[in-house]
Amino acid sequence: RYFVEEIMKDRELSINDQKKLQTQLLKLKAKNTRLERTVVKLLSGFSGALALTGATEKEEFFESGIKSLINQPEFKNIDEVCKLAEVLDVVDEKFENIAKDLKENETKIYIGKENPIDGISNCSMVVSSYKLKGGEKGILALIGPKRMKYAKNKSLIEYMKKLLSSSAVLFLIINTIK
Prior knowledge:
By secondary structure, the chain is α+β, with helices and mostly antiparallel strands. The chain has helices at about 1-5, 15-30, 35-45, 65-70, 80-90, 90-100, 150-165, 165-175; strands spanning about 50-55, 60-65, 105-110, 125-130, 135-145. The radius of gyration is 16 Å and the shape is globular.
């Protein structure tokens, strides 16, 4: 917690990573009609963590990266994997409450036992709300080991929020799939 609050500096995602993310978003979106599936695949791929997203009004959530998460050394014990799997089966129910606690455009970092999702106190979570141009509200989250790269994951979430709320990027996505 001391590192995240006192030492870690907020940083922008590098221009190179921004371009990669934009390119991959357009490529995946061209193949896949669900924006949410595309977003979680990209966030998981760039972070190596479990990514979750969804529109809070629809109460529909998507996830990607379970394999990346359970391949971490913290989950070599089968009991830990079983606990994680049990929690992930009902994670969508937990996200409704987390979304209610977030202020608009706020990004929070939960470390270990601070994690509001019971049963994964050996994980940390970077979570944020977002709002699409059409007014639809959603949530983005990355769940990973407590030793995750907090600054990088926070900047990934922040940049993805920026992409999702940008009408220019969404216009490109829509035109790419037509």
